[in-house]
Structure prediction request, 320 residues.
Amino acid sequence: MPHTVPPTHADHPLPAPLRIGYVPEHFSVPLHMLQQNILPLIHPPPLIIELVPFPSGTGAMITSLSTHTIDVAVGLTEGWLAGLAQGKNFYRLIGSYVESPLRWAISTGSGRESEFLDAQGQLQLQGKKLGVSRIGSGSYVMAYVLAEREGWLDTSGSSTKPPFDFIVLNDFTGLRSGVNSRAADAFMWEYYTTKKYYTTTPELAQIGELPTPWPSWHIVCHPDPTLSLFLTYLNSAIEYFNKHPKEAVDFIVNSKEMHYSREDAEAWLKEVRFAQDTRKVDKEVIRSCVDTLRKAGVVPAVDGAQGEVKTDNMFVPVVW
Prediction:
């Protein structure tokens, strides 16, 4: 059965290109399918999209949203919500993207495992130099989630003491280099993006893993957008992705900006679950994620009221 393509809107004037920030990893495949497989079938095209890659991740997209150099961004849930809870009010959640958790691998330099694992295999990273792409990024936020899980948070004072010495290393390349030059001791990044550096080109060693306790990717943009067409056609692209798994794997393997083996792409495909309707955001997910981030010390309580981080205005429905 063919995938569903929404009807064209011939009476709508052709809009300016919609600049969409994304991380050039396997999760971006439906965005590319939207651009290459869905929109070209419709005449006249209902919208034009420009995909803008951000190898540094969610934190870099937040910066670009603040300067209006992109209109929409697809990134990590915890990064978006941490920024919103910290008062970055120039963007809002407008949709969901990936419902399955993200697998964060914890890595160090090749041959350095014994420095950070005890005889029982327990992590020994408290107070160590942890590489992050930037302050406020997903790799930074999840460090606090890791610290909460391991019991490394010091909340004895008026504010939470950082559990690590954070070292900003800009992107995945910088992080890999940092743990081998000893500028950093460890870092966290998506598992399948990291995996080949454990085996094919063994410059890293895995010392742990941490899945997000929430759906991993959401969509944001500037407040009060009219983006119903984008989300509607993105639904069609996700439907196309789900019905064409071999094409999705071929795209990942042959992409010049992604570097995954066929085996890893196929394994990831079995785990990932994209949103059935990107136009819907579960407000309980927002509340749960922000509460976890507050407990981890990433976001403050509002007006000194412990646990009262306001979440109601973090999501803005699109205009239909």
